[in-house]
């Protein structure tokens, strides 16, 4: 059963000093990360492979930090982060993902996490980032910043979108609307793993390196054929995908404290929320007008 994301526990035993709770549904990954932390002299407060179980156990154990897998069978790391913070905002959470995916990065920031780690980083880097959060500072894998700095202004293929299968085109348009992999899976009825694989194939076919660039390419191609931007209602934002990237670059800059409400970085979270809403508005309008052959009267 998929966990709804609601807080499920309120017990408050004594906090484990510098204890870290590990959430990952893959036992090898979970065991490996716990071993890495212990070998670095960092206490492990507990672990789980279930989002629902973690949302119950983390507030009860009160670790200093919870490292949360991005995607689990019964929920997401962002879901768990929100549920934990709703019970005890003193517990620090970071999201860890197996890809340099801006969707995971956005989810981490909006959930109030202290950072976003990558399973592709080596052990020393992972330990460094964990120690940063334990020390009261935000921590993001440097690879996320490198990904974001791959300029979305870089030249895209000038030809029309390559010949795609109908299902691939549908997924690409949903990426253009700013939907995350899990949302696309729910919309299309395909497995999330299938969407992940299909996205990798689409990025290769399009000659781009990440979902942000793919979304921008979709919008540009639709705009070029239908002159959508010229016909948009006055006041609608343009170039909002680039705005999301610029805010994310500010978010991943290593800083003191979280980006959650009440912190100095709370303004970044609000900016990111506005940029995401603008991006979805532009992409949805572009796609709707393209599907209907032009702007609605």
Automatic annotation (TrEMBL):
The keyword DNA-binding applies. GO terms for biological process: phosphorelay signal transduction system; regulation of DNA-templated transcription. Pfam families: GerE, Response_reg. The modification 4-aspartylphosphate is found at residue 69. GO terms for molecular function: DNA binding. InterPro entries: CheY-like_superfamily (IPR011006), NreC/VraR/RcsB-like_REC (IPR058245), Sig_transdc_resp-reg_C-effctor (IPR016032), Sig_transdc_resp-reg_receiver (IPR001789), Tscrpt_reg_LuxR_C (IPR000792), WalR-like (IPR039420). SUPFAM superfamilies: C-terminal effector domain of the bipartite response regulators (SSF46894), CheY-like (SSF52172). This is LuxR family transcriptional regulator. It comes from Sinomonas atrocyanea.
